[in-house]
Amino acid sequence: MIKSNSEKREKIDWLFKQLFKFTGFATIALLGGIFLMLIYNSISFFANVSPIDFFTGSQWDPGSATSKYSIIPLLASTGLVAIGSMLIAVPLGIFTAAFLSELAPKKLQTFLKPVIEMLAAIPSVAIGFLGIVLVGPGIAKIFGIENGLNALNGSVLLAVMALPTIITISEDAINAVPKSHREASFALGANKWETMFQVTLPAALPGLIAAVLLGLGRALGETMTVLMATGNASVLPEGFLDSIRTITATIAIEMGEVPYQTTHYYALFAIAAVLFMITLLINFLGEYFANRLRKFHA
Amino acid sequence: MKKKILYIFNWILLTGSTVIVTLFLGVILFDIFSKGLSSVSWSFISKFPGNGMTTGGILPAIIGTFLLTIVTTLFAVPFGVTCAIYLNEYAKPSLLTNIIRASIRNLAGIPSIIYGLFGLALFVQSLRMGTSVLSAGLTLGLLSLPYIITTTEEALKRIPNSMREATLALGATQFETIRDVVLPKSLPGILTGVILTLSRAAGETAPILFTGVAFYINTLTASLNQEFMALPYHLYMLSTQHNSIETVRPLAYGTSVVLILLVFTMNIVAFYIRFKHRTQE
Asked: Do B111 and A10 make contact, defined as CB atoms within 8 angstroms?
Protein backbone atom coordinates (compact mmCIF):
# COMPACT_ATOMS: atom_id res chain seq x y z
CA MET A 1 0.00 0.00 0.00
CA ILE A 2 2.66 2.47 1.05
CA LYS A 3 4.87 1.44 -1.78
CA SER A 4 2.21 1.94 -4.46
CA ASN A 5 1.43 5.35 -3.01
CA SER A 6 5.02 6.47 -3.31
CA GLU A 7 5.17 5.03 -6.82
CA LYS A 8 2.17 7.14 -7.70
CA ARG A 9 3.80 10.25 -6.26
CA GLU A 10 6.95 9.60 -8.22
CA LYS A 11 4.94 9.13 -11.37
CA ILE A 12 3.17 12.46 -10.83
CA ASP A 13 6.52 14.07 -10.15
CA TRP A 14 7.89 12.70 -13.42
CA LEU A 15 4.79 13.73 -15.39
CA PHE A 16 4.94 17.31 -14.20
CA LYS A 17 8.63 17.51 -14.87
CA GLN A 18 7.88 16.60 -18.50
CA LEU A 19 5.10 19.20 -18.64
CA PHE A 20 7.36 21.95 -17.31
CA LYS A 21 10.07 20.92 -19.75
CA PHE A 22 7.62 20.93 -22.63
CA THR A 23 6.57 24.54 -22.01
CA GLY A 24 10.22 25.53 -21.84
CA PHE A 25 10.86 24.06 -25.27
CA ALA A 26 7.62 25.54 -26.59
CA THR A 27 9.14 29.02 -26.32
CA ILE A 28 11.86 28.02 -28.79
CA ALA A 29 9.13 26.62 -31.04
CA LEU A 30 7.23 29.92 -30.80
CA LEU A 31 10.20 32.04 -31.86
CA GLY A 32 11.00 29.51 -34.59
CA GLY A 33 7.36 29.48 -35.68
CA ILE A 34 7.22 33.26 -36.04
CA PHE A 35 10.48 33.22 -37.98
CA LEU A 36 9.35 30.42 -40.32
CA MET A 37 5.94 32.03 -40.89
CA LEU A 38 7.63 35.24 -42.02
CA ILE A 39 10.19 33.46 -44.20
CA TYR A 40 7.63 31.12 -45.77
CA ASN A 41 5.33 33.96 -46.83
CA SER A 42 8.25 36.13 -47.93
CA ILE A 43 9.40 33.37 -50.29
CA SER A 44 5.98 33.45 -51.94
CA PHE A 45 6.46 37.19 -52.38
CA PHE A 46 9.94 36.97 -53.88
CA ALA A 47 8.67 34.37 -56.34
CA ASN A 48 6.74 37.25 -57.95
CA VAL A 49 8.81 40.32 -57.22
CA SER A 50 12.55 40.50 -57.58
CA PRO A 51 14.50 41.23 -54.38
CA ILE A 52 16.45 43.85 -56.35
CA ASP A 53 13.29 45.88 -56.99
CA PHE A 54 12.27 45.35 -53.39
CA PHE A 55 15.51 46.69 -51.93
CA THR A 56 16.42 49.35 -54.51
CA GLY A 57 13.20 50.88 -55.87
CA SER A 58 11.74 54.07 -54.48
CA GLN A 59 8.00 53.49 -54.59
CA TRP A 60 5.57 51.54 -52.47
CA ASP A 61 2.40 51.53 -54.52
CA PRO A 62 0.72 48.15 -54.34
CA GLY A 63 -2.79 49.25 -55.34
CA SER A 64 -2.22 50.29 -58.95
CA ALA A 65 -2.12 48.18 -62.11
CA THR A 66 1.67 48.55 -62.26
CA SER A 67 2.22 47.68 -58.62
CA LYS A 68 5.48 48.85 -57.12
CA TYR A 69 6.85 47.03 -54.09
CA SER A 70 9.87 48.86 -52.76
CA ILE A 71 10.58 48.79 -49.05
CA ILE A 72 12.89 51.82 -49.30
CA PRO A 73 10.35 54.61 -48.55
CA LEU A 74 8.94 52.57 -45.65
CA LEU A 75 12.38 51.77 -44.33
CA ALA A 76 13.45 55.42 -44.62
CA SER A 77 10.29 56.49 -42.75
CA THR A 78 10.86 53.91 -40.02
CA GLY A 79 14.50 54.95 -39.66
CA LEU A 80 13.77 58.68 -39.70
CA VAL A 81 11.08 58.62 -37.03
CA ALA A 82 13.07 56.23 -34.81
CA ILE A 83 16.29 58.25 -35.05
CA GLY A 84 14.35 61.43 -34.34
CA SER A 85 12.85 59.85 -31.24
CA MET A 86 16.29 58.80 -30.02
CA LEU A 87 17.67 62.33 -30.49
CA ILE A 88 15.03 63.46 -28.00
CA ALA A 89 14.87 60.47 -25.68
CA VAL A 90 18.55 59.57 -25.25
CA PRO A 91 19.80 62.79 -23.61
CA LEU A 92 16.59 63.21 -21.60
CA GLY A 93 16.62 59.57 -20.53
CA ILE A 94 20.28 59.32 -19.52
CA PHE A 95 20.29 62.67 -17.68
CA THR A 96 17.12 61.70 -15.84
CA ALA A 97 18.68 58.37 -14.90
CA ALA A 98 21.80 60.21 -13.67
CA PHE A 99 19.60 62.58 -11.66
CA LEU A 100 17.71 59.66 -10.13
CA SER A 101 20.77 57.70 -9.08
CA GLU A 102 23.24 60.51 -8.22
CA LEU A 103 21.33 63.63 -7.23
CA ALA A 104 17.79 62.86 -6.14
CA PRO A 105 17.11 62.55 -2.41
CA LYS A 106 15.34 59.33 -1.35
CA LYS A 107 11.98 61.05 -1.00
CA LEU A 108 12.08 62.46 -4.51
CA GLN A 109 13.07 59.03 -5.83
CA THR A 110 9.98 57.42 -4.35
CA PHE A 111 7.91 60.06 -6.18
CA LEU A 112 9.72 59.80 -9.53
CA LYS A 113 9.79 55.99 -9.83
CA PRO A 114 5.98 55.73 -10.08
CA VAL A 115 5.98 58.67 -12.53
CA ILE A 116 8.18 56.66 -14.88
CA GLU A 117 6.14 53.50 -14.34
CA MET A 118 2.92 55.39 -15.11
CA LEU A 119 4.47 56.81 -18.27
CA ALA A 120 5.31 53.26 -19.33
CA ALA A 121 1.79 52.07 -18.59
CA ILE A 122 -0.07 54.51 -20.86
CA PRO A 123 -1.39 52.56 -23.87
CA SER A 124 0.22 53.45 -27.21
CA VAL A 125 -3.16 54.25 -28.73
CA ALA A 126 -3.72 56.98 -26.10
CA ILE A 127 -0.31 58.50 -26.92
CA GLY A 128 -1.22 58.40 -30.62
CA PHE A 129 -4.50 60.13 -29.82
CA LEU A 130 -2.58 62.95 -28.13
CA GLY A 131 -0.44 63.17 -31.26
CA ILE A 132 -3.59 64.01 -33.19
CA VAL A 133 -5.26 66.39 -30.73
CA LEU A 134 -2.30 68.02 -28.97
CA VAL A 135 1.16 67.53 -30.53
CA GLY A 136 -0.03 67.79 -34.16
CA PRO A 137 -1.79 71.16 -33.82
CA GLY A 138 1.18 72.40 -31.75
CA ILE A 139 3.67 71.50 -34.50
CA ALA A 140 1.41 73.02 -37.17
CA LYS A 141 1.32 76.30 -35.24
CA ILE A 142 5.06 76.47 -34.49
CA PHE A 143 6.19 75.72 -38.04
CA GLY A 144 3.27 77.41 -39.79
CA ILE A 145 2.22 74.33 -41.73
CA GLU A 146 -1.20 73.00 -42.57
CA ASN A 147 -1.19 69.95 -40.34
CA GLY A 148 1.22 68.52 -37.86
CA LEU A 149 0.85 64.85 -38.73
CA ASN A 150 4.47 64.17 -39.72
CA ALA A 151 7.75 62.53 -38.74
CA LEU A 152 8.47 65.13 -36.03
CA ASN A 153 5.15 64.37 -34.34
CA GLY A 154 5.92 60.63 -34.43
CA SER A 155 9.42 61.24 -33.05
CA VAL A 156 8.12 63.23 -30.07
CA LEU A 157 5.55 60.53 -29.24
CA LEU A 158 7.98 57.64 -29.69
CA ALA A 159 10.46 59.48 -27.46
CA VAL A 160 7.86 59.59 -24.70
CA MET A 161 7.26 55.86 -25.16
CA ALA A 162 10.96 54.92 -25.24
CA LEU A 163 11.86 57.08 -22.21
CA PRO A 164 10.77 54.65 -19.46
CA THR A 165 12.85 51.85 -21.04
CA ILE A 166 15.91 54.07 -21.43
CA ILE A 167 15.63 55.59 -17.94
CA THR A 168 15.11 52.28 -16.12
CA ILE A 169 17.97 50.42 -17.82
CA SER A 170 20.34 53.42 -17.64
CA GLU A 171 19.64 53.84 -13.95
CA ASP A 172 20.39 50.16 -13.32
CA ALA A 173 23.64 50.55 -15.27
CA ILE A 174 24.69 53.64 -13.29
CA ASN A 175 23.78 52.00 -9.99
CA ALA A 176 25.81 48.94 -10.95
CA VAL A 177 29.04 50.96 -11.01
CA PRO A 178 30.79 50.00 -7.76
CA LYS A 179 30.98 52.62 -5.04
CA SER A 180 34.73 52.14 -4.83
CA HIS A 181 35.12 53.77 -8.29
CA ARG A 182 33.44 56.91 -7.02
CA GLU A 183 35.34 56.89 -3.75
CA ALA A 184 38.65 56.52 -5.57
CA SER A 185 37.77 59.49 -7.76
CA PHE A 186 36.77 61.62 -4.76
CA ALA A 187 39.98 60.62 -2.98
CA LEU A 188 41.98 61.95 -5.94
CA GLY A 189 40.31 65.31 -5.44
CA ALA A 190 37.66 65.15 -8.15
CA ASN A 191 34.34 66.78 -7.32
CA LYS A 192 30.86 65.36 -7.75
CA TRP A 193 30.45 66.42 -11.38
CA GLU A 194 33.90 65.39 -12.50
CA THR A 195 33.30 62.01 -10.91
CA MET A 196 29.93 61.62 -12.61
CA PHE A 197 31.00 62.62 -16.11
CA GLN A 198 34.52 61.21 -16.09
CA VAL A 199 34.19 58.10 -13.93
CA THR A 200 30.65 56.89 -13.28
CA LEU A 201 29.01 57.46 -16.67
CA PRO A 202 31.95 56.09 -18.71
CA ALA A 203 32.04 53.00 -16.47
CA ALA A 204 28.32 52.53 -17.07
CA LEU A 205 28.68 53.09 -20.82
CA PRO A 206 27.96 49.54 -22.03
CA GLY A 207 24.77 49.57 -19.98
CA LEU A 208 23.81 52.97 -21.35
CA ILE A 209 24.33 51.70 -24.89
CA ALA A 210 22.16 48.68 -24.09
CA ALA A 211 19.47 51.05 -22.76
CA VAL A 212 19.54 53.12 -25.94
CA LEU A 213 19.40 50.04 -28.17
CA LEU A 214 16.44 48.57 -26.31
CA GLY A 215 14.67 51.95 -26.47
CA LEU A 216 15.40 52.07 -30.19
CA GLY A 217 13.99 48.57 -30.61
CA ARG A 218 10.81 49.70 -28.94
CA ALA A 219 10.55 52.80 -31.18
CA LEU A 220 11.14 50.79 -34.38
CA GLY A 221 8.46 48.25 -33.56
CA GLU A 222 5.76 50.62 -32.35
CA THR A 223 2.63 50.64 -34.50
CA MET A 224 -0.33 52.62 -33.19
CA THR A 225 1.34 55.94 -32.37
CA VAL A 226 3.06 56.26 -35.74
CA LEU A 227 -0.04 55.01 -37.54
CA MET A 228 -2.14 57.74 -35.93
CA ALA A 229 0.29 60.66 -35.81
CA THR A 230 2.55 60.63 -38.87
CA GLY A 231 0.16 61.16 -41.79
CA ASN A 232 0.88 57.87 -43.58
CA ALA A 233 2.21 59.09 -46.93
CA SER A 234 4.30 56.33 -48.47
CA VAL A 235 6.79 58.50 -50.31
CA LEU A 236 10.47 58.95 -49.62
CA PRO A 237 10.65 61.52 -46.79
CA GLU A 238 12.99 64.51 -47.11
CA GLY A 239 12.77 65.92 -43.59
CA PHE A 240 11.06 65.78 -40.24
CA LEU A 241 8.14 67.92 -41.41
CA ASP A 242 7.24 65.39 -44.11
CA SER A 243 4.42 62.96 -43.66
CA ILE A 244 5.79 59.44 -43.42
CA ARG A 245 4.65 55.84 -43.31
CA THR A 246 6.55 53.25 -41.33
CA ILE A 247 6.74 49.51 -41.96
CA THR A 248 4.47 48.83 -38.99
CA ALA A 249 1.84 51.37 -40.09
CA THR A 250 1.85 49.96 -43.63
CA ILE A 251 1.11 46.46 -42.32
CA ALA A 252 -1.63 47.83 -40.05
CA ILE A 253 -3.32 49.81 -42.84
CA GLU A 254 -3.07 47.32 -45.69
CA MET A 255 -3.43 43.90 -44.06
CA GLY A 256 -7.09 44.57 -43.30
CA GLU A 257 -7.87 45.25 -46.95
CA VAL A 258 -5.83 42.85 -49.07
CA PRO A 259 -7.27 39.57 -50.33
CA TYR A 260 -5.50 36.50 -48.92
CA GLN A 261 -2.54 35.02 -50.73
CA THR A 262 -2.06 37.72 -53.32
CA THR A 263 1.34 39.28 -54.03
CA HIS A 264 0.27 42.29 -52.01
CA TYR A 265 -0.62 40.03 -49.05
CA TYR A 266 2.78 38.31 -49.20
CA ALA A 267 4.50 41.70 -49.59
CA LEU A 268 3.29 42.69 -46.12
CA PHE A 269 4.94 39.58 -44.67
CA ALA A 270 8.14 40.43 -46.53
CA ILE A 271 8.35 43.93 -45.00
CA ALA A 272 7.49 42.38 -41.62
CA ALA A 273 10.39 39.95 -42.09
CA VAL A 274 12.77 42.86 -42.67
CA LEU A 275 11.49 44.62 -39.55
CA PHE A 276 11.84 41.36 -37.58
CA MET A 277 15.49 41.00 -38.65
CA ILE A 278 16.27 44.61 -37.71
CA THR A 279 14.71 44.38 -34.24
CA LEU A 280 16.36 41.00 -33.68
CA LEU A 281 19.76 42.45 -34.56
CA ILE A 282 19.24 45.45 -32.29
CA ASN A 283 18.16 43.23 -29.41
CA PHE A 284 21.21 41.00 -29.88
CA LEU A 285 23.48 44.06 -29.85
CA GLY A 286 21.71 45.40 -26.76
CA GLU A 287 22.19 42.09 -25.00
CA TYR A 288 25.86 41.99 -25.99
CA PHE A 289 26.47 45.36 -24.35
CA ALA A 290 24.42 44.45 -21.29
CA ASN A 291 26.53 41.30 -20.85
CA ARG A 292 29.72 43.29 -21.23
CA LEU A 293 28.65 45.51 -18.36
CA ARG A 294 27.96 42.45 -16.24
CA LYS A 295 31.33 40.85 -17.00
CA PHE A 296 33.14 44.13 -16.43
CA HIS A 297 31.79 44.54 -12.93
CA ALA A 298 31.71 40.88 -11.94
CA MET B 1 33.87 81.35 -11.17
CA LYS B 2 34.05 79.24 -14.32
CA LYS B 3 33.75 76.17 -12.18
CA LYS B 4 30.65 77.51 -10.50
CA ILE B 5 28.95 78.18 -13.85
CA LEU B 6 29.75 74.62 -14.89
CA TYR B 7 28.22 73.37 -11.63
CA ILE B 8 25.00 75.24 -12.25
CA PHE B 9 24.92 74.16 -15.88
CA ASN B 10 25.27 70.49 -14.94
CA TRP B 11 22.67 70.79 -12.25
CA ILE B 12 20.22 72.38 -14.70
CA LEU B 13 20.95 69.66 -17.27
CA LEU B 14 20.07 66.82 -14.94
CA THR B 15 17.23 68.44 -13.04
CA GLY B 16 15.79 69.97 -16.19
CA SER B 17 15.69 66.60 -17.96
CA THR B 18 13.87 65.05 -15.03
CA VAL B 19 11.40 67.94 -14.91
CA ILE B 20 10.69 67.55 -18.63
CA VAL B 21 10.06 63.80 -18.28
CA THR B 22 7.69 64.47 -15.37
CA LEU B 23 5.99 67.20 -17.41
CA PHE B 24 5.36 64.72 -20.24
CA LEU B 25 3.27 62.59 -17.91
CA GLY B 26 1.61 65.67 -16.44
CA VAL B 27 0.63 67.06 -19.84
CA ILE B 28 -0.68 63.68 -21.06
CA LEU B 29 -2.84 63.12 -17.99
CA PHE B 30 -3.97 66.75 -17.72
CA ASP B 31 -5.06 67.00 -21.36
CA ILE B 32 -6.94 63.70 -21.36
CA PHE B 33 -8.60 64.09 -17.98
CA SER B 34 -9.47 67.78 -18.26
CA LYS B 35 -11.19 67.25 -21.60
CA GLY B 36 -12.43 63.71 -21.10
CA LEU B 37 -13.81 63.47 -17.58
CA SER B 38 -16.98 65.39 -18.48
CA SER B 39 -17.83 62.74 -21.11
CA VAL B 40 -17.59 59.91 -18.60
CA SER B 41 -20.84 59.12 -16.85
CA TRP B 42 -22.73 56.02 -15.82
CA SER B 43 -24.63 55.98 -19.09
CA PHE B 44 -21.31 56.31 -21.01
CA ILE B 45 -20.02 53.06 -19.56
CA SER B 46 -23.36 51.24 -19.47
CA LYS B 47 -24.89 52.01 -22.88
CA PHE B 48 -24.42 50.91 -26.46
CA PRO B 49 -23.15 53.41 -29.02
CA GLY B 50 -25.94 55.06 -31.01
CA ASN B 51 -26.50 57.18 -34.12
CA GLY B 52 -23.47 55.90 -36.01
CA MET B 53 -21.25 56.19 -32.91
CA THR B 54 -21.98 59.88 -32.38
CA THR B 55 -23.94 59.33 -29.15
CA GLY B 56 -24.27 56.71 -26.44
CA GLY B 57 -21.66 54.75 -24.58
CA ILE B 58 -18.92 52.19 -24.84
CA LEU B 59 -20.35 49.19 -23.01
CA PRO B 60 -19.59 46.61 -25.74
CA ALA B 61 -15.97 47.84 -25.93
CA ILE B 62 -15.56 47.44 -22.16
CA ILE B 63 -17.06 43.94 -22.25
CA GLY B 64 -14.93 43.03 -25.27
CA THR B 65 -11.70 44.12 -23.59
CA PHE B 66 -12.73 42.22 -20.45
CA LEU B 67 -13.43 38.96 -22.35
CA LEU B 68 -10.24 39.35 -24.36
CA THR B 69 -8.19 39.74 -21.19
CA ILE B 70 -9.77 36.59 -19.72
CA VAL B 71 -8.79 34.53 -22.78
CA THR B 72 -5.29 36.00 -22.64
CA THR B 73 -5.02 35.13 -18.93
CA LEU B 74 -6.28 31.57 -19.29
CA PHE B 75 -3.74 30.88 -22.02
CA ALA B 76 -0.67 32.87 -21.02
CA VAL B 77 -0.62 32.46 -17.23
CA PRO B 78 -0.47 28.63 -16.98
CA PHE B 79 1.89 28.47 -19.96
CA GLY B 80 4.16 31.24 -18.69
CA VAL B 81 4.25 30.09 -15.08
CA THR B 82 5.08 26.47 -15.95
CA CYS B 83 7.83 27.66 -18.27
CA ALA B 84 9.27 29.84 -15.50
CA ILE B 85 9.11 26.85 -13.11
CA TYR B 86 11.05 24.77 -15.60
CA LEU B 87 13.72 27.43 -16.00
CA ASN B 88 14.13 28.20 -12.31
CA GLU B 89 13.52 24.80 -10.67
CA TYR B 90 14.61 22.18 -13.19
CA ALA B 91 16.81 23.52 -15.98
CA LYS B 92 20.54 23.06 -15.51
CA PRO B 93 22.98 25.48 -17.12
CA SER B 94 23.43 24.12 -20.62
CA LEU B 95 23.41 25.24 -24.21
CA LEU B 96 19.74 24.28 -24.50
CA THR B 97 18.78 26.33 -21.45
CA ASN B 98 20.67 29.27 -22.90
CA ILE B 99 18.77 28.91 -26.16
CA ILE B 100 15.45 28.91 -24.27
CA ARG B 101 16.45 32.05 -22.38
CA ALA B 102 17.64 33.77 -25.55
CA SER B 103 14.35 32.86 -27.27
CA ILE B 104 12.35 34.42 -24.45
CA ARG B 105 14.37 37.64 -24.55
CA ASN B 106 13.95 37.87 -28.30
CA LEU B 107 10.23 37.16 -28.11
CA ALA B 108 9.95 40.18 -25.81
CA GLY B 109 11.60 42.34 -28.47
CA ILE B 110 9.39 41.35 -31.42
CA PRO B 111 7.12 44.21 -32.56
CA SER B 112 3.51 43.65 -31.54
CA ILE B 113 2.23 43.97 -35.11
CA ILE B 114 4.29 40.87 -36.03
CA TYR B 115 2.45 38.94 -33.31
CA GLY B 116 -0.69 40.16 -35.07
CA LEU B 117 0.51 38.67 -38.36
CA PHE B 118 1.45 35.42 -36.62
CA GLY B 119 -1.97 35.25 -34.94
CA LEU B 120 -3.61 35.83 -38.31
CA ALA B 121 -1.59 33.08 -40.01
CA LEU B 122 -1.80 30.56 -37.13
CA PHE B 123 -5.10 31.02 -35.28
CA VAL B 124 -7.34 32.74 -37.82
CA GLN B 125 -6.26 30.86 -40.93
CA SER B 126 -4.38 27.63 -40.19
CA LEU B 127 -6.36 26.59 -37.10
CA ARG B 128 -9.59 27.96 -38.60
CA MET B 129 -10.66 29.90 -35.51
CA GLY B 130 -11.64 32.86 -37.69
CA THR B 131 -11.52 36.44 -36.56
CA SER B 132 -12.75 36.04 -32.99
CA VAL B 133 -12.21 36.76 -29.31
CA LEU B 134 -10.42 33.41 -29.12
CA SER B 135 -7.93 34.19 -31.91
CA ALA B 136 -7.24 37.70 -30.61
CA GLY B 137 -6.95 36.54 -26.98
CA LEU B 138 -4.50 33.79 -27.90
CA THR B 139 -2.46 36.26 -29.97
CA LEU B 140 -2.26 38.64 -27.00
CA GLY B 141 -1.39 35.61 -24.87
CA LEU B 142 1.65 34.83 -27.03
CA LEU B 143 2.70 38.49 -26.80
CA SER B 144 2.38 38.38 -23.00
CA LEU B 145 4.30 35.11 -22.53
CA PRO B 146 7.87 36.45 -22.32
CA TYR B 147 6.85 39.06 -19.72
CA ILE B 148 4.99 36.53 -17.57
CA ILE B 149 7.90 34.09 -17.74
CA THR B 150 10.46 36.75 -16.78
CA THR B 151 8.48 38.23 -13.87
CA THR B 152 7.50 34.77 -12.55
CA GLU B 153 11.10 33.63 -12.63
CA GLU B 154 12.10 36.72 -10.65
CA ALA B 155 9.45 35.84 -8.06
CA LEU B 156 10.62 32.19 -7.86
CA LYS B 157 14.24 33.32 -7.45
CA ARG B 158 13.36 35.19 -4.28
CA ILE B 159 12.35 31.98 -2.48
CA PRO B 160 15.41 30.88 -0.52
CA ASN B 161 16.85 27.47 -1.42
CA SER B 162 16.78 26.42 2.23
CA MET B 163 12.98 26.19 2.02
CA ARG B 164 13.16 23.81 -0.93
CA GLU B 165 15.84 21.75 0.77
CA ALA B 166 13.84 21.46 3.99
CA THR B 167 10.80 20.15 2.12
CA LEU B 168 12.83 17.73 0.03
CA ALA B 169 14.55 16.46 3.19
CA LEU B 170 11.12 15.68 4.67
CA GLY B 171 10.57 13.30 1.75
CA ALA B 172 8.48 15.43 -0.59
CA THR B 173 9.06 15.03 -4.31
CA GLN B 174 10.25 17.99 -6.32
CA PHE B 175 6.79 18.55 -7.74
CA GLU B 176 5.26 18.50 -4.25
CA THR B 177 7.87 21.00 -3.10
CA ILE B 178 6.94 23.32 -5.95
CA ARG B 179 3.20 22.86 -5.45
CA ASP B 180 3.10 23.15 -1.66
CA VAL B 181 5.99 25.46 -0.84
CA VAL B 182 7.54 27.35 -3.74
CA LEU B 183 4.35 28.41 -5.55
CA PRO B 184 2.33 29.51 -2.49
CA LYS B 185 5.31 31.47 -1.19
CA SER B 186 5.95 33.23 -4.50
CA LEU B 187 2.28 33.84 -5.32
CA PRO B 188 2.23 37.59 -4.54
CA GLY B 189 5.29 38.15 -6.72
CA ILE B 190 3.82 36.11 -9.57
CA LEU B 191 0.50 37.93 -9.26
CA THR B 192 2.18 41.34 -9.48
CA GLY B 193 3.92 40.39 -12.72
CA VAL B 194 0.79 38.81 -14.18
CA ILE B 195 -1.40 41.86 -13.49
CA LEU B 196 1.19 44.27 -14.90
CA THR B 197 1.50 42.15 -18.04
CA LEU B 198 -2.26 41.93 -18.47
CA SER B 199 -2.61 45.69 -18.11
CA ARG B 200 -0.23 46.06 -21.04
CA ALA B 201 -2.12 43.45 -23.05
CA ALA B 202 -5.45 45.17 -22.38
CA GLY B 203 -4.11 48.39 -23.92
CA GLU B 204 -2.63 46.73 -27.02
CA THR B 205 -4.19 47.41 -30.39
CA ALA B 206 -1.85 46.22 -33.14
CA PRO B 207 -2.07 42.45 -32.40
CA ILE B 208 -5.88 42.42 -32.46
CA LEU B 209 -6.30 44.45 -35.66
CA PHE B 210 -6.48 41.41 -37.95
CA THR B 211 -7.42 38.76 -35.45
CA GLY B 212 -10.94 39.70 -34.44
CA VAL B 213 -11.60 43.25 -33.34
CA ALA B 214 -14.54 45.06 -34.96
CA PHE B 215 -15.69 48.67 -35.10
CA TYR B 216 -19.27 48.01 -34.12
CA ILE B 217 -21.07 45.02 -32.66
CA ASN B 218 -24.70 45.49 -31.76
CA THR B 219 -24.98 42.57 -29.39
CA LEU B 220 -22.93 41.78 -26.34
CA THR B 221 -20.15 39.40 -27.29
CA ALA B 222 -20.95 36.21 -25.47
CA SER B 223 -19.32 33.45 -27.42
CA LEU B 224 -15.65 32.98 -28.10
CA ASN B 225 -15.95 32.66 -31.86
CA GLN B 226 -17.49 36.08 -32.38
CA GLU B 227 -15.83 39.31 -33.34
CA PHE B 228 -15.74 41.90 -30.59
CA MET B 229 -15.19 45.56 -29.77
CA ALA B 230 -12.25 46.65 -27.63
CA LEU B 231 -11.43 49.91 -25.84
CA PRO B 232 -8.08 50.71 -27.50
CA TYR B 233 -9.39 49.91 -30.98
CA HIS B 234 -12.52 51.96 -30.29
CA LEU B 235 -10.32 54.95 -29.42
CA TYR B 236 -8.28 54.43 -32.60
CA MET B 237 -11.38 54.30 -34.81
CA LEU B 238 -13.07 57.27 -33.15
CA SER B 239 -9.98 59.44 -33.48
CA THR B 240 -8.96 58.54 -37.04
CA GLN B 241 -11.54 56.65 -39.05
CA HIS B 242 -14.88 58.19 -38.15
CA ASN B 243 -16.45 60.40 -40.83
CA SER B 244 -17.38 63.18 -38.42
CA ILE B 245 -14.25 63.20 -36.31
CA GLU B 246 -14.86 66.53 -34.58
CA THR B 247 -18.35 65.48 -33.41
CA VAL B 248 -17.07 62.31 -31.76
CA ARG B 249 -14.02 63.99 -30.19
CA PRO B 250 -15.64 64.11 -26.70
CA LEU B 251 -16.42 60.39 -26.99
CA ALA B 252 -12.80 59.71 -27.98
CA TYR B 253 -11.59 61.67 -24.95
CA GLY B 254 -14.04 59.79 -22.73
CA THR B 255 -12.81 56.46 -24.09
CA SER B 256 -9.17 57.41 -23.36
CA VAL B 257 -10.11 58.32 -19.80
CA VAL B 258 -11.75 54.91 -19.27
CA LEU B 259 -8.84 53.07 -20.92
CA ILE B 260 -6.18 54.89 -18.88
CA LEU B 261 -8.16 54.47 -15.64
CA LEU B 262 -8.48 50.74 -16.34
CA VAL B 263 -4.75 50.35 -16.96
CA PHE B 264 -3.75 52.49 -13.97
CA THR B 265 -6.12 50.62 -11.66
CA MET B 266 -4.51 47.33 -12.66
CA ASN B 267 -1.07 48.86 -12.05
CA ILE B 268 -2.05 50.18 -8.64
CA VAL B 269 -3.45 46.78 -7.62
CA ALA B 270 -0.19 45.16 -8.71
CA PHE B 271 1.93 47.64 -6.79
CA TYR B 272 -0.26 47.26 -3.73
CA ILE B 273 0.24 43.48 -3.75
CA ARG B 274 3.98 43.93 -4.16
CA PHE B 275 4.16 46.59 -1.44
CA LYS B 276 2.14 44.52 1.02
CA HIS B 277 4.20 41.42 0.34
CA ARG B 278 7.52 43.27 0.72
CA THR B 279 6.54 44.81 4.03
CA GLN B 280 5.49 41.39 5.32
CA GLU B 281 8.92 39.99 4.55
From this structure: no
More confident residue, B281 or A184: A184
Q: Look up the pTM and report it.
A: 0.92
Q: Could you tell me which residues are beta bridge partners of residue A17?
A: none
Name the residue ranges covered by the structural domains of chain B. 2-39, 45-280
Say whether B83 and A23 touch across the interface (CB within 8 A).
Answer: yes
Q: Which residues of A touch B117 (CB under 8 A)?
A: 37-38, 251, 255, 268-269, 272
For range B89-108, the mean pLDDT: 91
CA B82, B88, B94, B100 torsion: positive or negative? positive
Mention every residue, 6+ apart, whose C-beta is less than 8 A from residue B259.
A123, A125, A126, B203, B231, B232, B235
Q: Which CATH class is domain A60-297?
A: mainly alpha
Q: Is pLDDT of B243 > 90?
A: no
Pairing, β A68-69 against β A60-61: antiparallel
Average pLDDT of the residues in B86-114: 91
Question: B45-280, which class in CATH?
Answer: mainly alpha
Q: What is the identity of the amino acid at B263?
A: V
Instruction: Determine what percent of chain B is predicted with pLDDT higher than 70.
Output: 98
- Out of A61-70, A146-155, A235-244, B200-209, pick the least confident: A61-70
Would you kindly state where each structural domain of chain A is located, as residue ranges?
A: 2-47, 60-297
- The gap from C-alpha A241 to its chain's centroid, in whole angstroms, comes to 22
Chain-chain contact of B25 with A114 (C-beta, under 8 angstroms)? no
Mean pLDDT of chain B: 89
In contact, A285 and A206? CB cutoff 8 Å = no
3-state SS assignment for residue A233? coil
